[in-house]
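Now for one specimen:
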Amino acid sequence: LYSAPGGGGGEASAAASGSSSGLGIMGGGVGGTATATGLNHFPGGGGTAAATFGINRPTRQQNTRRHLNLLSPTRYSLFRAPHAEAILDKIVRIVKKQGDLIVWGTQEILAECGDVTARCWRDGDPHSSSLAGAAMLNRAKILTDRGLVCSIKTRKDLRDEQKATALLKLIGLVASSCDPLCDQVAMGISTDRGVGGACLKTLLRNDLKLPYQFVQAWHSVLLTLLAVPNFKAAMANAYCDTYRAVTAEYARGVGLIDRSSYTLSVQFLNRVSYVTDLVRERNLLSNLSRCLLETMNSASFIPGSPGSPPPAGASSDIMNDLDARVTPSSSLTAAILALLGFFSMEGMEDEENLARLDSEINDLFLGMTEGVGGGDSRHHGRLSSIARSSKAVANSNNAAAQQILLERTTALVPPTLDPSHTVLSHRRYSVCISDLKCVLNVDGMARHFSSLPIDKKQPYLPLATSAHGGGIDYLTIRPIDSDGKGDCALDDWIKTLTLAQQMDGQMWRPWSKGHVETEPKGWVGAFNASISFSSLFERLLGWEDSDPSPIGDCNIRLLSCVELTYYTLTVGLHRWQRSEMLSYRPTHRPSLEPNPNVQAYALSPASLPFSTVASAHGSALAMTALPLPQIAVWSFHLPLHRFVAACIREVSRRHDIDPCTPVEASSGGMAKLLEMFSLPMDASGEDASSQLRLNALLFRGLMEFPIIVLSRAAQIRAGIWRRNGPGMSDQVLNYSEPPFCRPLADADMLLLQFALICHTSRVAGSVTMAKDGGEMDQSVAGLEFGGTGTLRLVNLLLLRFGIFDFLGFEKAPNANVDRYKHEIGLGLYPPEIDDIIEDTDGESAAEPVLPWTYCPATDPATCLLLVEELLHLIIILITEMPSPSPRDKTDHEFEAKRRLKREVIHRLASGNKTHSDLSEVNHVLPQRDNLVLCETGKLVNPDDASGAALEAALSEVAIRKCRTGAPDEWELQKEAWKWYDPAFHHISTRAHQSATENRPKPSPSSPYSPRPAPAHMAFQRIRRDLTADSCILAMTYRVLHVHCYEGDSPNSTQVRGNQMYDDAIKSETVLARAVHLLTLGAYAWEESYSGNKVISSNWRDLGGGEIGSVFHDQESANACDWVKMALLREPSDVMNDEWYRGKGNALLLLKTIGFEGGNHSGFLGGVDPSLRSGAAWLCDFAAKFNPTAAALTGKGSSTNTSKAEGAVPNKAEELEKRKKAAKEKAMAMMKAQMAKFAANIGNSPGFDDDDRMSEDVDGSRSPSRESDETLIFPTPLRNRLDAGAVEVMDLSPTGDFILTSPIAPQTPSTPPYTPHTPSTPTTSELSGIRLFNERPQCIICGTDDPMQLDDSGLGDPDGKKPAKASSEGEVNQEKALAFCGYSQASTVIKGGDGPPSRGPNTEAPPQKKIGGYV
């Protein structure tokens, strides 16, 4: 039994012959890196196989040498030995080097069958031959079950292989001897005469299963013959004809890539003439895309089906929580319909809802059966069960019908990929990806790929909607030939990406569950697949709309970039999102019982509540959204969404058709794409409803699914997913940091931006449509999304991040229950699952249920980290946008250089870098930018074009630092720091921390962040929309107020989310995000500022006037209005909470931070200077555009020396005043500290009254510790190890900690003692009298309050009383007093006491050092 030269997962081909005189069983490991994995499952430990090991070699001497290299054939010694791993490593090396491995030969067969059976078998006895054959097949089954590929060969087969190998070597020698003989050999193999033509295809088709020695000789001959042009053409044709069969075997695990014909494809797939002929005559592009689809299909499975792998992090009890949380009900049916865009109004019967849901399921079922395309057979079986159950719905009552429909929707879950499958774990798809890259690099092939076959029935691109609002799969209209010639490469590509959606699902492990015992490693294969797919995106889209197809006379229609994007959105993405949305189920509300059956993390509401802040600015009370519990399965991988993002990025490069300035290379840009989704003016009611439903579901999914990934990544960074293992952090790093962040996290954020502009009123239109009778059609009321993009986005982020309550927002349905019921009756959103209770008459009644929220964090510090993540995400959405469409190559070159310099600046901000350290900076740039930069660099250095472009960028923003014996480094210029963005997302958090330390001290009133780069015209409005949103402004005010708040922390009855006011969790990073966000708002509204407040009819088109904005009900808005609503509004109106009434507005808080130093913040050294400067700049901006703000900040007041009482001083006077106050405070603190120290020394026993230790620097005696005149100021002290004095750490006039002069000498100032001075002997009974004869004080804070020792650590054990506050307004939380003694600890243990004796003391030598203080 022999193996193929590597492989895994295949089937064994077995044969037994009684007449054979010798045979062997051979097994090989899975190919590539999987070899060791396959051999780890090698059967041998139990004594069932592996009697001898050897390599198929011609001579017995070589076989013996191989045997000795391994292990003697014993039953238990191989895999149960302590050195089994070393043995396996030797086996792996032999298999990789020599090929086949003998695992069972003739001697083992004879030994197992017995002597009598073996003799009869050799004589041809049928019964004995059956026994021998059964033994061989049993051994083969053992190996194949472990993923090995095996074959049974006789001695004759081995001799034939050796003869064939020798013959090929001879042919190779003949072909390489001279050109005429080479031509003759090539003609003989490649022509169709005789066996030649069949030989080439046959050998290529079985290339993966041929013996190793034979393959080596065969490939050597092919490389020699490829120099003949005619043979190369024949080889290319044969390669294309056999590609599908060979790829199918390779996907099953047969063969290794470095021993296959795949290594020869580069010889002809990078030639224009060969590729063009193959595409025209043999449909190469469709062949490659179909092979990629079939390869991925072999690794697919249906989530939730029997035998399917569980999500990573899942456990049996968590899965039980998911299964037990859903019960059929009429409310559940209405909620599922709402996910599909159908909303139940008040008075609608349950039968109507059930019939509508059944129709939608049938529509999805029809699309899945037509779009599987040779998929998993298990999926076809589930679909047929769906069709059978559909007939039972009409013949059942409501309860039975609801149960049937629930089962049908569960069966519609789209398939996905198993990351642990060998196709993904060993990258068996890489050959298809590599060949696609080679073909797409040929000019025009990518343009031909983005095309659709012309159908006689449908010659034009139709409206991609059906009567049910679903997308039409154009592939169902075009018949597919059995030979594959009718395949469409674009459709296969979309299906492949659809299959990879949600692969490697993740499930959260709650805090109550244990840590994962075995961390899954499948995420590596999933990320490799996503990265491989994304590497093709820009190659597939690297064309212009005006480029022709290189294939002439082809029956296809070339799509423009806008049409390609629209086709992918409506045909591919919309269908997947509709099916995926049906897998989410709303549940009952969380139980109020102490130990509920289902935990809160497994429950999800049917709709999400808006905050009262949003409802006060025009929004409804709730919104339709995916019912997503915390433990719902999600994935980092949405390759179809990321491909749509790549298409959108390409569309933004195109210019919209302008009659004045036409651009020949463009067939429309972003405006045309948005226009394709708009409602036609002459559309009928049914068509308008279908288009509206498609838009609502499509744009909702474009917003929801990326938010799920971004929010879960933020939770992982905050430490909430710690029980899922450290591998989650590795996945987040690959997702959100260079070099893979551009096709992953950056693409998700671009989708959010595109969804925002799709939600604008101009794109969405009006949903108010009349019926035939003139009445209002409320069936589409729940689909209203025009003007609600920012509102929905911010609310989704708040609830998906889990910080809705922490930020102090109140749920709008709880504040107005009657309005909530009324809006449900109008069909604006689905109701919650009813709780059935018994009334006094014994009848069941539905208790009204309101939407709820959930937070996975267990402590305020984690919630604050989530707040910082949310603010950071909003900042990136405002800052990182598609750039304006370049008009020509010069514009494109300018933008490319600007993006490169921005990347270089932020790499150098964290420290000096060498040229090699920056060589990978271009990985996060678009491929078009790299091509343009390389063209520019070739003019400087043709040998290293990319390096020359990088050198040019470095010379503009950095200074070269020459070093001896080391590479030169580049240091960022001081002038370039003004372009440093503290929220730049292409460098890590640690790099930003280093940049903060390296950042030069900013000038007064300089902005905290630079002005964002110009954005695309269609996306530019997002900056005004986000910075004018009422909830975002409420978040920024809350952060500012928490930072500047002084006094006792409020309790939960005073303010919502009171945990945010805990002093121990203040974060300067969160404060910086708030200041950064307000700075971006100032930039956005300054650009459109007009000195005269003119009422404009189109100002809302610029952004900032949608529902949920602070300007939603105003007729005009400009920079002055933004300052008023964002910085000057009454805090109680901002937060919609009366507790904030009378508190300082945002401008006063910024003034406190910027001009008063913010020393009360609790941060070491005060607030960062750049942050203070940024807050001061915001104050100057407000004073510039708003007269009220100017008066409040003192910018508009008189500068005369005689000012009215209470007038605000200018900045110079205020700075001088603060310097003087800081100096006086520092001197007072120094004197008080010295007085306190001297008082403690002077009141100790053993000191004479006229001892001078208590004198201060002026010679006057300091007051005692009990004196009322003593002032206690907290001044930090630290010990200097390099000097003999104690230094004071004090505050400088700028708010920084500095070291001042010593407060006391190291030795006492008393006269030295003489031998004649009388002394009192120290006895052990008096030891320790002076130590702690009174309670010591803390040197830092000057207090001796007792520690608060309770169970909670927060004050009262019952939690009803606040913790005791100290004199400084701080809460004592488990504080421990430091040992502030006057002697070393060792002397205390030895009984030391008092100062040194006034004379020699021979009885207590350890006490000589007593009296020294530390």
Remarks:
- The longest strand covers residues 23-28.
- The mean pLDDT is 74.
